[in-house]
Design goal:
The complex is a heterotetramer, with two copies of chain A (252 residues) and two copies of chain B (300 residues). Chain A is α/β, with parallel strands linked by helices and 252 residues long. Chain A is 24% helix and 22% strand. In chain A, the strands form three sheets. A ten-stranded mixed β-sheet of chain A has the order 4-3-2-1-5-10-11-12-13-14, with helices on both faces. In chain A, strands 6-7 form a two-stranded antiparallel sheet. In chain A, strands 8-9 form a two-stranded antiparallel ribbon. Chain A is globular and about 50 Å long. With 300 residues, chain B is α/β, with parallel strands linked by helices. Chain B has two domains: 7-102 and 153-280, Glutaconate Coenzyme A-transferase (3-Layer(aba) Sandwich); 117-151, no CATH class. Chain B has twelve helices and 14 strands. In chain B, strands 1, 2, 3, 6, 10, 11, 12, 13 and 14 form a nine-stranded mixed β-sheet that branches. In chain B, helix 1 (7-14) packs across helix 2 (32-40), helix 2 runs parallel beside helix 3 and helix 5 (101-113) crosses helix 7. Chain B starts with 6 loop residues before the first helix and ends in a 15-residue tail after the last helix. Classes of the chains: A alpha/beta (252), B alpha/beta (300).
């Protein structure tokens, strides 16, 4: 039987969410691996763009930072940071954004700023970077994260970037252009927003129980009526994925 | 008129205690040599503005140069946390102003454009907007809807590393552009550091590549390998090993001070630093050439 | 995915009666061939937006394609007046919206950036602001002073001529950039015309030169000499003689219609046009090569 | 005795107003010739910029339009039109602007838009182009124009670009950054603003009388107490100037 790590599992599932031709705002780490895997399988026309202003990257090695020069050499285009956030993201040219953070709450809001109070925090996190605008303006957003109770509180300490606020109506009232989070991919399964914007369990990976997911989630988690069991990573997917991270930096 | 001088002279003349400094470079062209020279000259009470403070500001904060940081992402890129800045912020010993990347670059764009503010569409997230009173709102007079605005940022001095420039300060930049151009136009004074000083004719052979013109530049310094452990596209690679190493060095004040002693205070300039880095690292970071397709401007 | 098609096909598919068209190019890269194809296909009621209408819009107005012009300078550059547009405006037969260059380009910048408006500092002159109700004011929330704003312009279709692009529409542009990038991002659809269609590898060898990415482009057309009597930097010179000649041709409706008959309606495409222009003019407008200094991106 | 045309006279005098190191927003025609003359005489470090986005032009032939490719080849920099109006002009990086128009009034306001009413004009002129912002934001502005009564009305039909409005106080109240028109160079002499912002006669060319200037001006023209007589164009100035326009396109 094929074995794989939790990171491999999440990355393969994230890759499958991408569509051929998607323009994706990528970060380093698992999202970068997911995009490169998708490009080598079902989405050869995927366009990867980076907040550093790189469009259509073709990295020949694993990029170790968002500004790795391998993202520039052989890219389609490089523009200023101001242009990437205006002409590309704000204008609506980005189909998919990947997001991450220390906390994701019941309505898909993300905290990347502080644990505790803003002015007297227990922990000061790195901050928004590009994520506030990606969460607002990319057509679809995906979150890849390990499933742990402390990462899934009922309410984030600080809403660095918007999911559905306290419900879809609130997000829509803000007039923001993007569709918000479409799925959270974890090592246990998938959370997706329901009609109200609340994240509900829509799929579990093989062998995972609903109770196990609930035990690792900080709010009373609803399970979808048509709860799916996911298709495990295939041999070919894993082979291609491991080629992308030969030193096992992100996939371990 | 030539503006060539040493980096030591440029920092002495153009960076003063209390200044707001923007050492530009979004993950690329980060002017580490200039940060080290500021540390050596013992500047105090600086406001350090950068979208991503990166190791350069972690080191400057460790050396006691800063009273405040303005930023949009305080991380060690690809590694994790910036331990020193984070510790100082959590302890309340360092003032700060926080934005998203777009808010930060919009501040610079407004400053560069000579505008009082720049508008941005709403993101639905309002927590940071509420936490930072410099975020404001303006009503779009066409739709009646509100946009979020940030005020112009006009640093006292910007430090900009470039691949090549002439001795007057006309600069060619390629690879990741980040906020190089915006910082140069926004700042009151500009120190250019360059991998190569080239004849004016090289610059004039490709005017579309010139992002910074001489008349916004105060000083031009020839500083090869200025960006190590960051990189300069086409010249040398990023030294990721050092980014990982800094994560360890910055675990204790003692190891940080020892590192500063060995690599900053104990060093005269970037040339000495680069020699000390050593041949093995030089080789590891060297990059085979790969040239752009020719571009014909025409002999008009 | 290749978007290559003939200019005839691109105009037929993407330019419709009543559309707002932005045929871009500030004095450079003006897509005359596309304007002529629009005339041949008999488009009506177009809103023609351009900072400088130039001869291309004078000809399109003469052919009855336009209901309205949006502009900031209606002149025959370096020669004098645009007789046809001026006559139609003075007779009240053509609707118009007028800006300064900065107002016009700010409208496009807002449209390209996805913003509802762009702010501009006051110029002390208020006559045009009062004459055009789309100029509005907004109060700067930091100083309390007013800035002037213009709304986003998002043309239905932009037509952009470039030196070279790949068959997907990733385009290199150099020389005068005008509003090429802003028009491409602001428009709902983009038709690219190119002097050369090159392999993707040529584009990827110099990503900083790529101002327009494939995913804003609807159609890619290989149209050498598209810009005559204007020019393409590095490919051919501006035909000033024709700009002077147009001043005479446009003196009477009869000579204009005769010219349109001979050079637009009576011609199948730009290739036929360029052959008809003749060898003497080809030679007069040819330009010796002058190449940019090499740029090393590095084999990372 | 040296002879010269009215255009040569005005161009030489305009060139003398430029200072070494000035960054000048230039048009084609006489301003272009004046700048190139200044660069070859007393101002070798003059930087010529054009609204088409060209900085530090070194034209090797006489440019026949503002977008002539000879302005690009060998220039220092080329940028977008948006950048030239923001980073360069609005930011305050332009020392000198040259302006022209169909009418210049008592307070240096310029009309380049319409003769008559805006919506039902007798003549529709080309319009502002870059001039509204140049007049507002360049540190100093100069106007080169033939001296004719119809060109110098008491009040312009339409104030396309601002001189001193109805007096210096009005311009200052607008908060505009530029200093406004510093001199109007004509074939008869110089008009310069006094403390109130009104254009007064400060110099006449040799052989020109105050009465002659008044007869060609549409308002009661004040003459400065210390009215100067200008220094005629020198042989060397004329020789260099004529080299710049060998076919006598602009200087005739």
């Amino acid at each position: 039987m094929t074995t794989f790590t939790a990171s491999e599992l999440m990355t393969v599932h994230a890759a499958r969410l991408l569509r051929d031709g998607d323009v994706v705002f990528v970060g380093v780490g698992l999202p970068n691996l997911a995009c490169n895997l998708a490009r080598r399988t079902h989405a050869p026309n995927l366009v990867m763009i980076y907040e550093a202003g790189v469009i259509g990257a073709r990295p020949s090695r694993l990029p170790l930072s968002i500004g790795d020069p391998t993202l520039v050499t052989r890219a389609t285009s490089v523009c200023s940071m101001y242009d990437i956030f205006t002409l590309y993201l704000q204008r609506g040219n980005v189909d998919v954004g990947f997001l991450g953070g220390a906390q994701i709450d019941r309505f898909g809001n993300i905290n990347a700023t502080v644990i505790g109070d803003y002015n007297h925090p227990k922990v000061r996190l790195p901050g928004s970077g590009g994520s506030m605008e990606i969460a607002g303006w990319a057509n679809r957003c995906y979150i890849i994260t390990p499933h742990q109770k402390r990462r899934f509180p009922e309410k984030v300490d600080f809403a660095t970037s918007a999911g559905f606020l306290n419900g879809r109506a609130a997000r829509e009232a803000s007039g923001v252009r993007g569709g918000g989070p479409q799925a959270v991919v974890t090592n246990l399964g998938f959370l997706e927003p329901d009609e109200s914007g609340e994240l509900v369990l829509t799929a579990v990976h093989p062998g995972v129980t609903v109770e196990e997911v609930q035990a690792n989630t900080g709010w009373p988690l609803k399970a979808a009526a048509n709860l799916r069991v996911t298709e495990p990573p295939g041999e070919e997917e894993l082979r291609l994925l491991r080629e992308l991270d030969p030193q096992n930096i992100y996939l371990k | 008129m030539s503006k060539l001088c040493t980096l030591k002279e440029a920092i002495a003349q153009h960076v003063h205690d209390g200044d707001c400094v923007y050492a530009a470079g979004f993950t690329h062209l980060i002017p580490f040599a200039a940060g080290h020279e500021i540390i050596r000259q013992g500047r105090k009470d600086l406001t350090l503005a950068r979208a991503t403070p990166d190791l350069i500001y972690d080191q400057m904060v460790a050396a006691g140069c800063a009273k405040k940081v303005i930023y949009s992402y305080i991380g060690n890129p690809g590694v994790g946390s910036l331990r020193i800045i984070r510790t100082e912020l959590e302890a309340g010993r360092l003032e700060f102003e926080e934005y998203s990347h777009f808010g930060m670059i919009s501040r610079l764009q407004a400053g560069a454009a000579g505008l009082p503010f720049m508008p941005m569409n709403q993101t639905a997230a309002t927590a940071l907007e509420q936490a930072n009173p410099l975020y404001r709102r303006v009503t779009d007079p066409y739709s009646g809807r509100e946009v979020v605005v940030v005020p112009a940022l006009n640093p006292d001095v910007a430090i900009i590393h470039v691949q090549r420039c002439d001795e007057r300060g006309n600069a060619h930049i390629w690879g990741i552009l980040g906020e190089q151009k915006e910082a140069a136009f926004a700042a009151k004074r500009v120190i250019l550091t360059a991998e190569e000083i080239v004849p004016e004719e090289v610059i004039r052979s490709d005017p579309n590549r010139t992002l910074i013109p001489e008349f916004v530049v105060s000083a031009v310094c020839h500083v090869p390998y200025c960006s190590h452990p960051s990189y300069t596209q086409g010249y040398y690679d990023r030294d990721n090993d050092f980014y990982l190493e800094w994560d360890k060095i910055s675990e204790t004040p003692e190891s940080v001070q020892a590192w500063l002693q060995e690599w900053v205070y104990g060093i005269t300039d970037r040339e000495a630093y680069w020699q000390k880095v050593g041949a093995e690292t030089h080789k590891r970071l060297s990059v085979p050439p790969l040239y752009a397709a020719p571009v014909n401007y025409g002999e008009y």
